[in-house]
Design brief:
single chain; alpha/beta; Rossmann fold; six-stranded parallel beta sheet; 9 helices; 6 strands
Length: about 220
Protein backbone atom coordinates (compact mmCIF):
# COMPACT_ATOMS: atom_id res chain seq x y z
CA UNK A 1 0.00 0.00 0.00
CA UNK A 2 1.37 3.41 -1.01
CA UNK A 3 1.69 5.74 2.02
CA UNK A 4 -0.65 8.70 1.95
CA UNK A 5 0.94 12.10 1.38
CA UNK A 6 0.73 14.53 4.30
CA UNK A 7 -2.15 16.97 4.03
CA UNK A 8 -1.46 20.72 4.01
CA UNK A 9 -4.41 23.07 4.58
CA UNK A 10 -4.56 26.80 3.84
CA UNK A 11 -7.23 28.95 5.51
CA UNK A 12 -9.36 31.76 4.15
CA UNK A 13 -8.80 35.47 4.56
CA UNK A 14 -8.51 36.54 8.21
CA UNK A 15 -8.81 32.96 9.42
CA UNK A 16 -6.24 30.85 11.25
CA UNK A 17 -5.81 27.14 11.92
CA UNK A 18 -8.98 27.02 14.01
CA UNK A 19 -10.92 27.01 10.74
CA UNK A 20 -9.83 23.38 10.30
CA UNK A 21 -10.09 22.20 13.91
CA UNK A 22 -12.58 19.48 12.95
CA UNK A 23 -10.73 18.27 9.85
CA UNK A 24 -8.49 15.18 9.42
CA UNK A 25 -4.88 15.26 10.62
CA UNK A 26 -3.05 17.95 8.67
CA UNK A 27 -0.30 20.54 8.56
CA UNK A 28 -1.65 24.08 8.81
CA UNK A 29 0.45 26.72 7.05
CA UNK A 30 -0.41 30.43 7.50
CA UNK A 31 -0.80 32.70 4.47
CA UNK A 32 -0.28 35.98 6.30
CA UNK A 33 3.27 37.08 5.55
CA UNK A 34 3.15 38.70 2.08
CA UNK A 35 1.01 40.98 -0.04
CA UNK A 36 0.98 39.01 -3.32
CA UNK A 37 -0.48 35.58 -4.01
CA UNK A 38 2.74 34.58 -5.77
CA UNK A 39 4.91 35.36 -2.73
CA UNK A 40 2.51 33.61 -0.37
CA UNK A 41 2.56 30.47 -2.54
CA UNK A 42 6.36 30.51 -2.65
CA UNK A 43 6.38 30.71 1.15
CA UNK A 44 3.99 27.74 1.38
CA UNK A 45 6.29 25.70 -0.84
CA UNK A 46 9.30 26.58 1.30
CA UNK A 47 7.54 25.32 4.43
CA UNK A 48 5.60 22.33 3.08
CA UNK A 49 6.81 18.72 2.86
CA UNK A 50 8.55 17.66 -0.35
CA UNK A 51 5.29 16.16 -1.66
CA UNK A 52 1.87 16.68 -0.14
CA UNK A 53 -1.87 16.78 -0.65
CA UNK A 54 -3.09 20.37 -0.65
CA UNK A 55 -6.39 21.90 0.37
CA UNK A 56 -7.41 25.53 0.58
CA UNK A 57 -10.58 27.42 1.41
CA UNK A 58 -11.44 30.78 -0.13
CA UNK A 59 -8.16 32.78 -0.20
CA UNK A 60 -6.41 29.56 0.78
CA UNK A 61 -7.80 27.97 -2.37
CA UNK A 62 -6.55 30.88 -4.45
CA UNK A 63 -3.08 30.40 -2.97
CA UNK A 64 -3.34 26.64 -3.57
CA UNK A 65 -3.95 27.26 -7.28
CA UNK A 66 -0.79 29.37 -7.43
CA UNK A 67 1.11 26.62 -5.60
CA UNK A 68 0.19 24.08 -8.31
CA UNK A 69 1.09 26.63 -10.98
CA UNK A 70 4.56 27.08 -9.46
CA UNK A 71 5.27 23.47 -8.47
CA UNK A 72 2.68 20.98 -9.81
CA UNK A 73 4.95 17.98 -9.27
CA UNK A 74 5.07 18.51 -5.50
CA UNK A 75 1.29 18.31 -5.01
CA UNK A 76 -0.29 14.85 -5.17
CA UNK A 77 -3.95 15.91 -5.02
CA UNK A 78 -5.92 19.12 -4.60
CA UNK A 79 -8.99 20.31 -2.69
CA UNK A 80 -10.48 23.69 -3.57
CA UNK A 81 -13.20 24.83 -1.16
CA UNK A 82 -15.47 27.86 -1.45
CA UNK A 83 -13.05 29.67 -3.70
CA UNK A 84 -12.66 31.38 -7.09
CA UNK A 85 -10.25 30.65 -9.94
CA UNK A 86 -10.80 34.00 -11.67
CA UNK A 87 -9.19 37.39 -11.16
CA UNK A 88 -10.93 39.87 -8.88
CA UNK A 89 -13.88 41.61 -10.52
CA UNK A 90 -13.88 45.39 -10.80
CA UNK A 91 -16.64 45.96 -8.25
CA UNK A 92 -14.88 44.04 -5.48
CA UNK A 93 -11.52 45.48 -6.49
CA UNK A 94 -12.86 49.01 -6.05
CA UNK A 95 -14.06 48.21 -2.52
CA UNK A 96 -10.67 46.97 -1.31
CA UNK A 97 -9.01 50.38 -0.88
CA UNK A 98 -11.68 51.87 1.40
CA UNK A 99 -11.82 48.65 3.44
CA UNK A 100 -8.05 48.70 3.93
CA UNK A 101 -8.15 52.36 5.01
CA UNK A 102 -10.89 51.66 7.55
CA UNK A 103 -9.12 48.59 8.93
CA UNK A 104 -5.81 50.42 9.35
CA UNK A 105 -7.57 53.32 11.10
CA UNK A 106 -8.61 51.10 14.02
CA UNK A 107 -11.73 49.96 12.18
CA UNK A 108 -11.00 46.29 11.55
CA UNK A 109 -13.73 45.10 13.89
CA UNK A 110 -16.29 47.28 12.11
CA UNK A 111 -15.18 46.11 8.66
CA UNK A 112 -15.49 42.48 9.69
CA UNK A 113 -18.84 43.03 11.41
CA UNK A 114 -20.49 45.20 8.74
CA UNK A 115 -19.05 44.08 5.42
CA UNK A 116 -17.61 40.58 5.71
CA UNK A 117 -19.23 38.49 8.41
CA UNK A 118 -22.81 38.97 7.09
CA UNK A 119 -21.78 37.21 3.87
CA UNK A 120 -20.05 34.25 5.49
CA UNK A 121 -22.59 31.83 6.84
CA UNK A 122 -25.89 30.08 6.22
CA UNK A 123 -28.52 30.21 8.92
CA UNK A 124 -28.05 27.38 11.37
CA UNK A 125 -27.98 26.54 15.08
CA UNK A 126 -24.23 27.14 15.42
CA UNK A 127 -24.13 30.40 13.42
CA UNK A 128 -23.56 32.72 16.45
CA UNK A 129 -20.73 30.52 17.71
CA UNK A 130 -19.05 30.38 14.30
CA UNK A 131 -19.41 34.14 13.80
CA UNK A 132 -17.77 34.76 17.18
CA UNK A 133 -14.88 32.51 16.16
CA UNK A 134 -14.52 34.34 12.85
CA UNK A 135 -14.27 37.66 14.65
CA UNK A 136 -11.76 36.28 17.14
CA UNK A 137 -9.57 34.88 14.33
CA UNK A 138 -9.69 38.20 12.47
CA UNK A 139 -8.86 40.33 15.49
CA UNK A 140 -6.03 37.97 16.45
CA UNK A 141 -4.45 38.46 13.01
CA UNK A 142 -4.95 42.23 13.02
CA UNK A 143 -5.25 45.09 10.51
CA UNK A 144 -1.82 44.70 8.89
CA UNK A 145 -2.67 41.14 7.83
CA UNK A 146 -6.05 42.36 6.59
CA UNK A 147 -4.34 44.98 4.41
CA UNK A 148 -1.76 42.55 3.01
CA UNK A 149 -4.31 39.85 2.25
CA UNK A 150 -6.71 42.36 0.68
CA UNK A 151 -3.97 43.61 -1.67
CA UNK A 152 -3.02 40.05 -2.59
CA UNK A 153 -6.60 39.19 -3.48
CA UNK A 154 -7.12 42.45 -5.36
CA UNK A 155 -4.11 41.92 -7.60
CA UNK A 156 -4.37 38.14 -8.14
CA UNK A 157 -4.10 36.48 -11.54
CA UNK A 158 -6.72 34.37 -13.30
CA UNK A 159 -5.92 30.66 -12.83
CA UNK A 160 -8.20 28.96 -15.36
CA UNK A 161 -5.23 27.92 -17.49
CA UNK A 162 -3.54 26.45 -14.39
CA UNK A 163 -6.60 24.31 -13.68
CA UNK A 164 -6.87 23.15 -17.31
CA UNK A 165 -3.31 21.83 -17.02
CA UNK A 166 -3.99 20.00 -13.73
CA UNK A 167 -4.71 16.26 -14.01
CA UNK A 168 -4.70 14.85 -10.48
CA UNK A 169 -7.53 13.87 -8.09
CA UNK A 170 -9.33 17.06 -7.08
CA UNK A 171 -12.15 17.81 -4.67
CA UNK A 172 -14.23 20.88 -5.45
CA UNK A 173 -16.36 21.64 -2.38
CA UNK A 174 -18.71 24.50 -1.64
CA UNK A 175 -21.49 25.43 0.73
CA UNK A 176 -24.87 25.39 -0.95
CA UNK A 177 -25.61 28.89 0.37
CA UNK A 178 -22.16 30.46 -0.19
CA UNK A 179 -22.76 34.05 -1.29
CA UNK A 180 -19.09 35.03 -1.57
CA UNK A 181 -18.15 32.16 -3.87
CA UNK A 182 -21.41 30.74 -5.22
CA UNK A 183 -21.96 27.38 -6.86
CA UNK A 184 -21.37 28.52 -10.44
CA UNK A 185 -17.74 29.34 -9.61
CA UNK A 186 -17.27 25.72 -8.55
CA UNK A 187 -18.99 24.14 -11.54
CA UNK A 188 -16.59 26.18 -13.68
CA UNK A 189 -13.62 24.62 -11.86
CA UNK A 190 -15.10 21.14 -12.31
CA UNK A 191 -15.36 21.79 -16.05
CA UNK A 192 -11.72 22.90 -16.18
CA UNK A 193 -10.16 20.03 -14.19
CA UNK A 194 -10.19 16.56 -15.74
CA UNK A 195 -10.23 14.60 -12.46
CA UNK A 196 -12.49 16.85 -10.37
CA UNK A 197 -15.41 15.79 -8.16
CA UNK A 198 -17.95 18.32 -6.90
CA UNK A 199 -19.38 18.16 -3.38
CA UNK A 200 -22.08 20.66 -2.41
CA UNK A 201 -22.58 20.93 1.35
CA UNK A 202 -26.19 21.60 2.25
CA UNK A 203 -27.08 24.12 4.97
CA UNK A 204 -23.62 25.71 4.72
CA UNK A 205 -22.37 29.05 3.48
CA UNK A 206 -18.76 30.11 2.96
CA UNK A 207 -17.23 28.10 5.83
CA UNK A 208 -18.37 24.44 5.63
CA UNK A 209 -15.49 23.18 7.84
CA UNK A 210 -17.11 25.07 10.73
CA UNK A 211 -20.75 25.10 9.67
CA UNK A 212 -21.03 21.42 8.69
CA UNK A 213 -17.81 19.86 9.99
CA UNK A 214 -18.89 16.21 9.81
CA UNK A 215 -19.97 16.42 6.16
CA UNK A 216 -16.86 18.38 5.20
CA UNK A 217 -14.53 16.01 7.03
CA UNK A 218 -16.09 12.99 5.32
CA UNK A 219 -15.67 14.62 1.89
CA UNK A 220 -12.00 15.34 2.62
CA UNK A 221 -11.36 11.82 3.91
CA UNK A 222 -12.97 10.31 0.80
CA UNK A 223 -10.80 12.53 -1.41
CA UNK A 224 -7.64 11.61 0.49
CA UNK A 225 -8.34 7.90 0.07
Amino acid sequence: MIPRSPLVLLAGMMCDGRLFKHMPHHIYLPITGHHTIEAIATDVLQNAPETFALGGLSMGGIVAMEVIRQAPDRVTRLALMDTNCEAENDRVKASRGPQIERALANGLQNVMRDEMKPNYLANGPNKPEVLDLCMDMAMSLGPDVFAAQSRALRDRQDQKKTLKNWHKPTLILCGEDDRLCPLHRHTLMVELISLAKLTVVRSAGHLPPLERPEVTRTAIEDWLH
